[in-house]
Amino acid sequence: MQLRAVSFSLLAVCFIAVSFKAIQYWPSSLVVLNSNGTLTYKADEKGNTIPDFSNVGYRTGNVPIPEVPVVQTISPGADAEQTIQKAIDAVAGKAPDKNGFRGAILLKKGRYPIQHNIRINAGGIVLRGEGSETLLIAEGTDKRALIDVSGTGEPTEVKGTRTPVTADYVPVGSRSIPVKSAAAFKPGDAVIIHWMAKDQWIEDLKMNQIVERPGTKQWRTKEYDLKFQRTITRIEGNTLFIDNPVVMAMEPRYNTAEVYIYSFPGRISNVGVEHLSCASAYTSDTAEDHSWDAVAFNRIENGWVRNVNARYFAYSCVNLGALSRNISVLGCSISDHKSIITGGRRYSFNNTGQMNLFMNCAASDGRHDYVTGARVCGPNVFYNCTAVRTHADIGPHHRWAMGTLYDNITTDGEINIQDRGNWGSGHGWSGVNQVVWNCTAKRATVQSPWVSGKNYCIGLKGEKSTGRLSQRPDGEWEGQNKPGLEPASLYMAQLKARGIQHP
């Protein structure tokens, strides 16, 4: 018996060794991992590269999410909603500390019935549970977010700072922008890069030629007035250097581009929701008169949602609005949506903001599980996330999302980046400068628009599909069904290349 055990062990070792040898590691031609941990990006004929996506999430990934000290503790009770809201309002009245935090409110284990919702409208507040046994239940029939986090107002241009971009072409991936005058700027300024479409852009994209059906809207230039939020890191002459790369090329024949400083006094920051569960009351599997989002963020920067589990919602676990930026959504999950299965429902993790990170999340029974909306200004990242029992596809869903990385996404459904044609109200091209990296899907469509950028599919495990409209330019494909892609994760390699060891 002992001899057999030794022989079996040797056989197992040999099998493992052969298995390791069978994997031939290979690099993408577009992003190469060097022996010292740096990355080399291959530029196309215009200088465009795959962007560096690593400066997303809480404080651009430069610091880990902090453990904020508890200042109030709450136990379950019949008046849970009023008690929690009163505690939030009390903490909001405290002065923030030197790091911008007012304190954490700890919800002890138990059930917390919520008739309306919990609102956080001031920065520096963390709502924390004791894990999955801290359960907030959205009761009643209102379609609303159970936990609603939002500041107020809109970004406002600082007068006298607007200056035009002077380059003939600013490529995707660039962190430098030549302007007519940099006199009004200094490092640390929050700026908007204002990209405004011209008619020629719509014409060459063929988005004024969408096949008509009832409700179809052709694209119009005034709707493509894109505002990328960035921070100036340094200035050399009349060139501005920014913290996050360009994800939409600037080209005078297609757009005008200007840069200006903005203020946003109503936006809040340093808010976290963590370590708790959320559920919505419902009357049937197709009921819609109940809570739609577990957590919704808007008008907020530098916040997080982590380890939040959601069940029975009609729309999402986490829904990030267009004015949310640098938010980290980590280790969250949603299952058992309750709604009819059709458009506008079951967007498990929805993002319309910029510089946001979704990492280590899980979705079940959703439609568009990791998804962006219309005119979403990147970069944004979905990393190491899963989806099962899917009813639709993952990817940019609406019109023209820019600069999204789908990295190590595993789904039993589809990942699609394509011309959606007259679906919806005439979505057309759903995204540009989208990167699918080392993902697993039943099938995928990755097409590139006629002009103004590319889409990439590197190391996909799954079937290649022709998509909704087959007569469209193919995206940049490499290594389909070929194991051993290095780096295995583009996002993690980009973090490490700039010396960051945490997400």
What structural keywords apply?
4 helices, Elongation Factor Tu (Ef-tu), domain 3, ten-stranded parallel beta sheet, about 500 residues, mainly beta, single chain, disordered N terminus, Pectate Lyase C-like
CATH architecture of the domain at 57-151 and 267-340 and 347-355: 3 Solenoid
What's the count of strands?
A: 41
- How many angstroms does the end-to-end distance come to? 49 Å
Count of individual helical segments: 4
Question: Could you give a short account of the major beta sheet?
Answer: 20 strands, parallel
- State the helical fraction: under 10%
Briefly note the structural class of the backbone.
mainly beta
Oligomer: single chain
Shape: globular
Report the portion of residues in β strands.
35-45%
User: CATH topology of the domain at 57-151 and 267-340 and 347-355, which one?
Assistant: Pectate Lyase C-like
Brief sketch in words of this structure:
This protein is mainly beta and 503 residues long.
Structural overview:
10% of the residues lie in helices and 38% in strands. With 503 residues, it is mainly beta. Among the domains are: 178 residues, Pectate Lyase C-like (3 Solenoid); 108 residues, Elongation Factor Tu (Ef-tu), domain 3, CATH 2.40.30. It has a 20-stranded parallel beta sheet that branches. It has a ten-stranded parallel beta sheet with strand order 7-10-20-22-25-28-31-34-37-39. Strands 11, 12, 13, 14, 15, 16 and 17 form a seven-stranded antiparallel beta sheet that branches.
